[in-house]
Amino acid sequence: MYDIAIIGGGIVGLATGVKILQSRPDLKIVILEKEYLERKSFLFDFKIIVKTFTNVLFSKGVSH
Ligand SMILES: Cc1cc2nc3c(=O)[nH]c(=O)nc-3n(C[C@H](O)[C@H](O)[C@H](O)COP(=O)(O)OP(=O)(O)OC[C@H]3O[C@@H](n4cnc5c(N)ncnc54)[C@H](O)[C@@H]3O)c2cc1C
């Protein structure tokens, strides 16, 4: 059971989720992303994990 459902995991949807959680960390939020739900597959998940891993590894767009 979620308190808030955000439709669309684009920049606006994700920023909205982050902002809500910053002020209300007690709320449970679900983000429903069309592309993800349609493509849902191990390969798609794997691609996201690899991309995230390499971005973090090479500090691409990540500031410390
Ligand atoms: C080719 C191109 C290049 C761009 N280049 C730049 C740039 O260089 N710099 C810049 O600042 N901006 C750029 N923009 C603009 C930028 O991409 C948009 O302003 C920004 O992504 C809008 O964010 P958003 O969250 O409102 O929408 P989106 O990023 O479009 O996110 C909406 C999300 O909702 C999902 N969705 C849609 N319908 C449903 C549904 N029924 N149920 C669930 N999920 C759904 C979509 O899959 C999508 O992921 C570019 C846009 C394009 C098209």
Keywords:
12% strand; single chain; 3 helices; 64 residues; two-stranded parallel ribbon
Structure description:
By secondary structure, the chain is α+β, with helices and mostly antiparallel strands. The protein has one domain. Helix content is 55%, strand content 12%. The chain is built from three helices and two strands. It has a two-stranded parallel sheet. α1 links the parallel β1 and β2. The protein is globular. The model has no long low-confidence stretch (mean pLDDT 89). The structure holds flavin-adenine dinucleotide.
Quick overview:
This protein has three helices and two strands. It is α+β, with helices and mostly antiparallel strands and 64 residues long.
- DSSP strand tally: 2
Bound molecules: flavin-adenine dinucleotide
Strand proportion, as a percent range, falls in 5-15%
Strand order of the largest sheet: 1-2
The class by helix and strand makeup works out as: alpha+beta
Q: Percentage of helical residues?
A: 40-55%
The radius of gyration over CA amounts to 14 Å
Mean pLDDT: 89
What kind of sheet is the major sheet? 2 strands, parallel
Number of helices: 3
Instruction: Give the total of domains.
Output: 1
Specify the overall morphology. Answer: globular
Low-confidence stretches: none
- First-last Cα distance: 35 Å
List the secondary-structure elements in sequence, H or E.
EHEHH
Helix-strand blueprint:
Blueprint: E1 4-7, H1 11-23, E2 29-32, H2 34-39, H3 42-57
Parallel strand pairs: 1-2
Residues 7-13, 32-35 line the site of flavin-adenine dinucleotide.
